[in-house]
């Protein structure tokens, strides 16, 4: 039962001890005080204090989240703060993960939210973790997952467990989900996902990655609405009675913000979401350059694959200029194919 008056934003089920939060509770930290009793051990009026931290996670944070799949640990162990070996409180792996993410991105810790921890398999355990970073706007998943991948070793060392996947992609289970085209879709449930680890608990967003056997770049079967995030490259979606429109960020245009242009002064690069896994793909690009050598397009792993990885990605496509002539490299798992085009003159004419 409550010690004193009931908190207006929380409700206690006295028979089960379950605490529920009322809708509309604002962000913040709440300190709740109770008196507990235990019929079995004849304990009465034992002080029981609960600290609840509330943080709103908007839809934009979820669709722009990074994700990792961790082996050898359950969701409960990931958030656990009680060390059974030493019989003392310790920093949870979730907190260590958050600390290290903030460190590798060189950002304040409060910009990082770890909002979803879900058990995917019990034996042997696999746990999915989702996080977002907000610095004025939310960083895109391709950047979150890419930088985590480049700092994989130090993050794994910090939490003491290995990642089996960075940027959860159910299409990587080759031929298990789909034969041919495969696209991941994010299923965000209105129901929360609760993890209870005795001295601590987490109520997070329930998010599932579903493999759909279709080409995401050319899937016109879904009803168009803003919930399906039809605007590419961070475009904002607006609906009216007849149709929807996309408001595109600087550097993008087209009906769905799918067109872009970039310029470089001999260095730098632009980082985009990887190409969809499709049976048939068509990619169009135009370029102007005065350089004889350079990489025009690359799609594939951004670090050298680790041989021990169960789902090692080695497929890649690269388009480059070599001595002013285009050169295409392809590898879809059976070796690298090289295609050279001998144009009438070199393409570095500006």
From TrEMBL:
Segments forming domain EGF-like: 222-258
Disulfide bonds: 248-257
Gene3D superfamilies: 2.60.120.200, Laminin
One Pfam family cited in the UniProt record for this chain: EGF
UniProt keywords, alphabetically: Disulfide bond, EGF-like domain
One term under GO cellular component: membrane
CDD domains named among the record's database cross-references: EGF_CA, LamG
Protein name stated in the entry: Cadherin N
Organism: Cybocephalus sp. CSR088
């Amino acid at each position: 039962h409550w010690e004193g008056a009931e908190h207006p934003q929380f409700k206690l089920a006295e028979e089960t001890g379950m605490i529920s939060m009322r809708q509309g509770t604002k962000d913040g930290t709440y300190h709740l005080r109770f008196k507990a009793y235990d019929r079995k051990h004849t304990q009465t009026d034992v002080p029981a204090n609960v600290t609840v931290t509330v943080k709103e996670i908007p839809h934009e944070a979820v669709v722009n989240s990074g994700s990792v799949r961790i082996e050898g640990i359950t969701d409960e162990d990931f958030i656990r703060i009680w060390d059974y070996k030493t019989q003392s409180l310790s920093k949870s792996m979730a907190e260590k993960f958050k600390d290290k993410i903030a460190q590798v991105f060189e950002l304040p810790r409060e910009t990082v939210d770890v909002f979803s921890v879900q058990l995917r398999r019990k034996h042997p355990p696999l746990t999915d973790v989702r996080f977002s970073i907000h610095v004025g706007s939310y960083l895109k998943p391709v950047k979150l997952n890419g930088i985590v991948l480049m700092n994989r070793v130090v993050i794994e060392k910090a939490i003491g467990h290995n990642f089996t996947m960075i940027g959860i992609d159910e299409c990587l289970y080759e031929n298990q989900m789909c034969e041919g085209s495969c696209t991941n879709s994010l299923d965000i449930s209105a129901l929360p996902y609760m993890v209870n680890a005795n001295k601590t608990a987490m109520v997070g967003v329930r998010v599932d990655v579903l493999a759909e056997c279709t080409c995401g770049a050319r899937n016109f079967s879904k009803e168009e609405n803003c919930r399906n995030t039809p605007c590419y490259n961070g475009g904002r979606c607006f609906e009216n009675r007849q149709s929807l429109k996309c408001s595109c960020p600087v550097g993008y245009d087209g009906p769905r913000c799918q067109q872009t242009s970039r310029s470089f002064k001999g260095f730098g690069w632009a980082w985009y979401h990887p190409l969809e896994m499709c049976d048939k793909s068509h990619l169009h690009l135009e370029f102007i350059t005065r350089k004889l050598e350079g990489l025009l397009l690359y799609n594939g792993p951004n670090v050298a694959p680790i041989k021990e990885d169960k789902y090692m990605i080695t497929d890649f496509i690269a388009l480059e200029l070599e001595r002013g002539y285009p050169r295409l490299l392809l590898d879809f798992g059976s070796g690298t194919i090289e295609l050279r085009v001998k144009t009438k003159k070199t393409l570095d004419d500006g």
